């Protein structure tokens, strides 16, 4: 048996003279590219008994398989005795590949047509709009199906910001305490004259002062106590878009830089024992599934490292949540979950280690129990509840999946120790209050605010928006953002994206 990797499409529509007819349908004239690979495939097929096409199970992968068959037909390389089989698998494990080989199928023409339609749109937009932009906007180098949509989102947001008019509003915060205790409870005003306040209810300093006078004349007591437990589920494993979003939000990496580091982790590094290994699975994916073997390894390690209570009660399986997702590959995960981030300190550079730690943590967390928080909400007001303040606090009852983040990101946890202590103290004070218990007003503070315009897109939030709208593919997000910056259609400013003035049309 001979295994051959074709690397990418070996047939494509010509770039210089697009065979694109815009009448009632699109038609392509196909050119054979990748000449060396094509010759090798031809030579092997002439003496082969079986041809197994195992490209990705998405539309691009289906198109590659179809392209190979079409090329071989054109060259009369498919002799009568050869058996052609199309097999697909979603994870690179022995059991998955064996199952795929036992269930061959024909080419899915619907996926091929979807690929051709997508290519048609690429050519239609690129070849028709780009020349127009060259004439009307000197310096604009290109347009594209994904690129132009992304730029439109950024420009629309800039116009929203330009048109935004801030509105003034006020909030009132009070300190209330027991007579015998000096520890104060901070509470925010939520009801006036038995009416619930919204953000803009108190619109001027005069209104705020009038309410303050009412507050100072009231005898306060605890009028309501609500206790509840809140479960926070473990996150899903990473796909391309969520990895880019988290890397942007937590590590301040650009999408392009994130994918560059992920590529390095995927291709493999030289370990201290001299062996080369890939550290993560394929990083251009919209699939949330994780192989059964990997799930078992993760759960075993969770039990060993954190205890049986921290492993999820059953195997957690994740399903498609992304619009138009094709799920051709597994989620992004370490190839070996037992390769801990601490083992890579001497092997990886600082940024690569940060990204690997992010992926490792998320992968372990996805098979752990939810975190459980105990929440308490206390309402303080007059006996008739016409004027009410609210104070709320929560504390962790069970860490659940959050234990992995305390384990790996110890530095971040240490920096929050004082904050956690203050929250615990506030929770204990609120929990000790009794219904009807009188409280003393310490100080009522008036705070002026102004509504804020919508936030500019960061690379992470733009990728998330494109994903929600079903625009682009995991492999295109980073390159799209790079093209927009290289062609000066947008510029990064303080980790946010701003469209240049000439492109706001």
UniProtKB/TrEMBL annotation:
<dbReference type="InterPro" id="IPR013826">
    <property type="entry name" value="Topo_IA_cen_sub3"/>
</dbReference>
<dbReference type="InterPro" id="IPR013824">
    <property type="entry name" value="Topo_IA_cen_sub1"/>
</dbReference>
<dbReference type="GO" id="GO:0003677">
    <property type="term" value="F:DNA binding"/>
</dbReference>
<dbReference type="InterPro" id="IPR023406">
    <property type="entry name" value="Topo_IA_AS"/>
</dbReference>
<dbReference type="Pfam" id="PF01751">
    <property type="entry name" value="Toprim"/>
</dbReference>
<comment type="similarity">
    <text>Belongs to the type IA topoisomerase family.</text>
</comment>
<keyword id="KW-0799">Topoisomerase</keyword>
<dbReference type="InterPro" id="IPR013825">
    <property type="entry name" value="Topo_IA_cen_sub2"/>
</dbReference>
<keyword id="KW-1133">Transmembrane helix</keyword>
<keyword id="KW-0812">Transmembrane</keyword>
<dbReference type="InterPro" id="IPR006171">
    <property type="entry name" value="TOPRIM_dom"/>
</dbReference>
<feature type="domain" description="Topo IA-type catalytic">
    <location>
        <begin position="108"/>
        <end position="505"/>
    </location>
</feature>
<dbReference type="InterPro" id="IPR005733">
    <property type="entry name" value="TopoI_bac-type"/>
</dbReference>
<dbReference type="InterPro" id="IPR003601">
    <property type="entry name" value="Topo_IA_2"/>
</dbReference>
<dbReference type="InterPro" id="IPR000380">
    <property type="entry name" value="Topo_IA"/>
</dbReference>
<dbReference type="InterPro" id="IPR013497">
    <property type="entry name" value="Topo_IA_cen"/>
</dbReference>
<keyword id="KW-0238">DNA-binding</keyword>
<keyword id="KW-0472">Membrane</keyword>
<dbReference type="GO" id="GO:0006265">
    <property type="term" value="P:DNA topological change"/>
</dbReference>
<dbReference type="InterPro" id="IPR023405">
    <property type="entry name" value="Topo_IA_core_domain"/>
</dbReference>
<dbReference type="Pfam" id="PF01131">
    <property type="entry name" value="Topoisom_bac"/>
</dbReference>
<protein>
    <recommendedName>
        <fullName>DNA topoisomerase</fullName>
        <ecNumber>5.6.2.1</ecNumber>
    </recommendedName>
</protein>
<dbReference type="GO" id="GO:0003917">
    <property type="term" value="F:DNA topoisomerase type I (single strand cut, ATP-independent) activity"/>
</dbReference>
<feature type="transmembrane region" description="Helical">
    <location>
        <begin position="20"/>
        <end position="46"/>
    </location>
</feature>
<keyword id="KW-0413">Isomerase</keyword>
<dbReference type="InterPro" id="IPR003602">
    <property type="entry name" value="Topo_IA_DNA-bd_dom"/>
</dbReference>
<feature type="domain" description="Toprim">
    <location>
        <begin position="1"/>
        <end position="92"/>
    </location>
</feature>
